[in-house]
Design goal:
The protein has helices at 2-9, 79-100, 106-119, 166-172, 179-194, 224-244, and strands spanning 27-28, 33-38, 41-47, 50-52, 55-58, 64-68, 71-77, 126-134, 138-144, 151-152, 155-158, 203-210, 214-220. Helix 2 (79-100) crosses helix 3. The chain contains 6 helices and 13 strands. With 246 residues, the chain is α+β, with helices and mostly antiparallel strands. Strand 12 and strand 13 (214-220) form a beta hairpin. It has one domain (25-236): Glutamine Phosphoribosylpyrophosphate, subunit 1, domain 1 (4-Layer Sandwich).
Length: 246
């Protein structure tokens, strides 16, 4: 039982600090994020799980962060790094909007993310997708991967779970998709990866942004990883219960 406990919770640190070593690891989003342009706006989506090493720190995190009224970012990588960058860009973009006396451009927000990610590329682990709508260029999606590159794409996926859905996106994405088709694509993509990526969760969040409004959607899926977790818990509980009566 002691060996099993050690395998389950990891080695304890030496000295007076008796906390498991995984508590000292950085919180990571363990993510699949995605965004799609359509005629009139964008659809963005993400799963909801954050991790510390192999352990789940939060199952219901919202990785879709508002930057301005019609601009959002999807965050992947270190949760602390991405939240800090999002706060900085939100602050900078707010002042920029006041100076212009109008809503900022999506490309401006993307350039601000690129500047921070590139300047601190040796210190930060942050992969960002910037998406939104402005009156000049309509719906736009910009990818800012780790390292600070910036590229506009009609559809973008990111995060550690994105490797599981590239085939799905290649098969199902088509140019000039409608809003409903993009919603099904994003929802289907996040649903697909929850069946294969054990560090992601069954809740997914999607947002639709147009020139008039923003819609928020939350989907719940049952993945094989969640079924496995429940099965392992039940097996362990039954085994411990039987030992008490031997």
């Amino acid at each position: 039982m002691a060996a099993a406990t050690a395998m389950r919770f990891g080695q304890l640190s030496s000295g007076s600090d008796m906390a498991p070593d995984w508590t000292m690891k950085e919180v990571s989003t363990g993510t699949t994020i995605m965004a799609v342009e359509y005629d009139g706006g964008v659809v963005i989506g993400a799963d909801s799980r954050t991790t510390t090493g192999a352990y789940i720190a939060n199952r219901v995190t919202d990785k879709l962060t508002p930057i301005h009224d019609r601009i959002f970012c999807c965050r992947s990588g270190s949760a602390a790094d991405t939240q800090a960058i999002a706060d900085v860009v939100t602050y900078q973009l707010g002042f920029h909007s006041i100076e212009l006396d109008e809503a900022p451009l999506v490309q401006t927000a993307a350039n601000l993310f690129k500047a921070s990610c590139y300047r601190y590329r040796e210190e930060l682990m942050a992969g960002i997708i910037v998406a939104g709508w402005d009156k000049r260029r309509g719906g736009q999606v910009y990818s800012v991967p780790i390292g600070g590159m910036l590229v506009r794409q009609p559809v973008s996926v990111g995060g550690s779970g994105s490797t599981y859905i590239y085939g799905y996106m290649d098969s199902n994405y088509k140019p000039n998709m409608t809003k409903d088709q993009c919603l099904r694509l994003v929802s289907g993509g996040t649903h697909t990866h929850t069946h294969t990526h054990t560090h992601t969760h069954t809740h997914t969040h999607t947002h639709t942004h147009t020139h008039t409004h923003t819609h928020t959607h939350t989907h719940t899926h049952k993945s094989w990883s969640s079924v496995l977790e429940k099965s392992l818990f039940s097996f362990t509980h039954i085994r411990q219960h039987n030992k008490q009566y031997k």
